[in-house]
């Protein structure tokens, strides 16, 4: 384990994706320093490995449990100059052990929903000293900044920098690969939609919507991507039970004309699978899970659909909704109607896609503001 660099904690796959542009920038900005990236889930670990497999200065491990002795041993082994925690993953013992060692800790791309804030407030005796020991909060919105201050963060250490998810850049080679894949599968003329990051209770609705869609668009292709790998087999079985000709992405089988569902059961390919489709539904939103990243399909110039449960992305959803880039549905019937409407009205689909791109571009710059703040803290070390 290389010592003395920067420690970045990204709990799972979503945080790992959000952290990637920041980590790449830190590699350039601090060319002599190692970067230790920790996570707490297998999906997050797989994503980190896929993103940085060829970078020798990136070292990766799971974060130990938040026990004083475990946190102390981890920090004594890594000896970071700075700790960066992504979004909302606050572990009091790790933060306190950093404070004892004089290691500044940043909460990057910080977000805090009303519900989470109420939860932290119930443990004020633990929350207030923990937040007071942190060096800087780079917060997405003013409403969230106020919640952090109210919970005990030092006001001078809280700054609204925006969401770095707006700074997502799409590799042109990814778009080229996706176009080539559609040509190879002969799906360039087929209407293709994706239901991404679905949770238990949503797949049935998505498949019901697809069945309805097939009555008007019999050649439609659904790309169905469950959020969690442990559900891949059960969702595949569900597709087969319901009579859909289904191919699993992991098998490498071609998507032929008779295939109506492609199941995304690979790791690290979500952006590529989005790029294969014309319309995106973002899961975790028909069930009360709070939704997932709406900006990935927006960055790919796709019209975006979701369910009503978006409490983890209220501000981003509001921006996209106001711009006309997001359409929300409540059930399978409404989802089928929305997808069919966009296939039947390509100009409306293009307008939604253009609106989403405009929102992305108008809100970029958070990554640079975050890097500037990190630079100030590193300069004091």
Automatic annotation (TrEMBL):
Pathway: Bacterial outer membrane biogenesis; LPS core biosynthesis. It is found in: Cell inner membrane; Cell membrane. Its EC number is 2.4.99.12. The active site is at residue 15. It is an enzyme of class 2 (transferase). Pfam families: Glycos_transf_N (PF04413). It is a single-pass membrane protein. One of its GO terms (molecular function) is Kdo transferase activity. GO terms for biological process: lipid A biosynthetic process; lipopolysaccharide core region biosynthetic process. The record marks 87, 165 as: Transition state stabilizer. It catalyses: lipid IVA (E. coli) + CMP-3-deoxy-beta-D-manno-octulosonate = alpha-Kdo-(2->6)-lipid IVA (E. coli) + CMP + H(+). Residues 5-167 form the 3-deoxy-D-manno-octulosonic-acid transferase N-terminal domain. One of its GO terms (cellular component) is plasma membrane. Keywords: Cell membrane, Lipopolysaccharide biosynthesis, Membrane, Signal-anchor, Transferase, Transmembrane. Belongs to the glycosyltransferase group 1 family. Glycosyltransferase 30 subfamily. Involved in lipopolysaccharide (LPS) biosynthesis. Catalyzes the transfer of 3-deoxy-D-manno-octulosonate (Kdo) residue(s) from CMP-Kdo to lipid IV(A), the tetraacyldisaccharide-1,4'-bisphosphate precursor of lipid A. PANTHER family: 3-DEOXY-D-MANNO-OCTULOSONIC ACID TRANSFERASE, MITOCHONDRIAL-RELATED (PTHR42755:SF1), 3-DEOXY-MANNO-OCTULOSONATE CYTIDYLYLTRANSFERASE (PTHR42755). This is 3-deoxy-D-manno-octulosonic acid transferase. It comes from Pseudomonas syringae pv. syringae (strain B728a).
